[in-house]
Fold:
Amino acid sequence: MLIAIASGKGGVGKTCLAIGLAQALAEAGRGPLLADGDLGLANVDVQLGLQPARDLGDVLAARCAIEEAVIHHPAGFDVLPGRSGSATLAAMDGTALVALLREQRRDVVLDLGAGLGVAQRHLAARADLLVVVASEEPTSLTDAYAVLKLHRRDAPDARAGVLVNMVAQRAQALRVHAALDSACRNFLGAGVPLLGAVRRDPKVPAAIRAQVPLLTRHPSSPAAQDLRDVAARLLDGAFSTPRHAEAP
Ligand SMILES: Nc1ncnc2c1ncn2[C@@H]1O[C@H](COP(=O)(O)OP(=O)(O)O)[C@@H](O)[C@H]1O
Ligand SMILES: [Mg+2]
Structure:
């Protein structure tokens, strides 16, 4: 399954949730690949404290095989790092990356960049599931809706769901989801399921500062528990029932 993580807006938590989901899938025995699809502004390697010798740019330019660029993380998942400041990667439309990831015979978690450029849209449209990360901030909501709207246009039959991040309590996640769901119903013809919620948790920035994945650094923190719940729900396929979205 190719799972892409998008939000439109930056700073909503795409990269740290992508890392957390990859690790939660690893804990569930899936051995996933975490790929940095923020073309030109890579962050996954930074959050994990990796210093890649080879990266996605080398693979796509045929300077090395994907196996030479992939780094195995001791937390149980593999990382295909990107490269920050690469003009070549920044100019890509995502087609070559989709082809590369499709050859992987395993779960892939793809961390997308902010914005709604050609590459983000292409990568989102080709995913088996688009996870749209939103917070309760109005700008996050409008950007998440914009992502969902273009995704419906680009890939009318593809699956997408909302993951609410940085919530104080469950009711807040339900409000954020209800706002997006009703906008999608009213203007796009069908609602959007809630994939889950991740609590606001000071252990998240603490893990990023330590450059250690959250589920390793703070395995029983609230956000780590929430990420395991989301991963379990993704593996259950519960996200495929849009009209009966469950509470987080
Ligand atoms: N659940 C959370 N609780 C607290 N802080 C969070 C949470 N999720 C993300 N953050 C913080 O938000 C910031 C942006 O996260 P990042 O993963 O870089 O977002 P994006 O990839 O969407 O730009 C980071 O400093 C991170 O610590
Ligand atoms: Mg990011």
Notes: The first strand starts at residue 2 and ends at 6. Residues 240-248 have pLDDT under 50 and may be disordered. Residues 2-240 form a domain with the Rossmann fold fold (CATH 3.40.50.300).
